[in-house]
């Protein structure tokens, strides 16, 4: 009888807390450095979400390191009350293969709130690279085997994953140069210290538009419509058949977050994804806001599981792991 009364009381308290949600600031953890592609998406999304959550303050906390796993681990261990959330990219699906000692279980330690967007990637080069189009770049890569420096933002970063697949697709080994974030990688590319990089349009569109880098192709199967990117061919049409890499972002909460809170968050997310200002900002960067079944928590989780199965063999074939 006492156990039953305790259970009823606990359920009543949880329901009351959920009904009041949110009644204090929400922290959104971004598992990468400020200024990077995921950070940009998270900050734009936070503004759109704030409007749907009674103008509740949403604080962005950048917890970078270990390819995004430190920030994700922090959220996995946070109190499951809806006040600590995670905005993460495809690294949610690739970390299980990249890290032998991952401090959380991707499919078990989080509640899935919904998918946000899909971000194409672009293949870019230093401004003084001799090649002016992809055909010329491919010849240059063939002629300079063993001397090519391929930059990325660190193990597990979107640029790292794209670079791995690009090397495998061309059958050309390159010297991978990892950085602690996208910003320093881009700085060295602009300065000519590295040769090429494959990175998200959210980070490269401005550089392409200003002519500070050479742009060769996009990683989607169809050309993009953003003004600065519309003339770029796809890698698939350029001869790298079947090449298709899209970086997506999703929202997650700690496992055990009350269902009413998750329902509130999902409803707010769905409305935020229809916010004209948010859509406009994303489209300007070449990103596509998701409006399909993956906005649903269950389908979001199924999608991540499918991505785990897709990227696992690719990463294992490359033999690039971390402890």
Characterize this entry briefly:
Helix content is 42%, strand content 19%. By secondary structure, the chain is of the alpha/beta class. Strands 1, 2, 3, 4, 5, 6, 7, 8, 9 and 10 form a ten-stranded mixed sheet that branches.
Write a concise keyword list for the protein shown above.
alpha/beta, 323 residues, Tripartite-type tricarboxylate transporter receptor subunit TctC, 2 domains, D-Maltodextrin-Binding Protein, domain 2, signal, BUG, single chain, 11 helices, Bug_dom1, 10 strands
Low-confidence stretches: 2-13
Tell me the Rg in angstroms.
Answer: 21 Å
What general form does the structure show? globular
Helix vs. strand class: alpha/beta
Organism: Rubrivivax gelatinosus (strain NBRC 100245 / IL144)
Keywords: Signal
Protein name: Tripartite-type tricarboxylate transporter receptor subunit TctC
Pfam families: TctC
Mind explaining what this structure looks like?
- There is one protein chain.
- The protein has 323 residues and is α/β, with parallel strands linked by helices.
- The chain has two domains: 20-119 and 248-318, Bordetella uptake gene, domain 1 (D-Maltodextrin-Binding Protein, domain 2), CATH 3.40.190.150; 120-218, D-Maltodextrin-Binding Protein, domain 2.
- Helices cover 42% and strands 19% of the residues.
- The protein is built from eleven helices and ten strands.
- It has helices spanning 2-20, 37-52, 69-76, 91-98, 134-143, 158-170, 182-190, 201-209, 259-272, 276-284, 297-318, and strands spanning 26-30, 58-62, 84-88, 110-125, 149-152, 175-178, 196-200, 214-218, 246-254, 288-289.
- Strands 1, 2, 3, 4, 5, 6, 7, 8, 9 and 10 form a ten-stranded mixed beta sheet that branches.
- Helix 2 (37-52) runs antiparallel to helix 10 (276-284) and helix 4 (91-98) packs across helix 11.
- The protein is globular, with a radius of gyration of 21 Å.
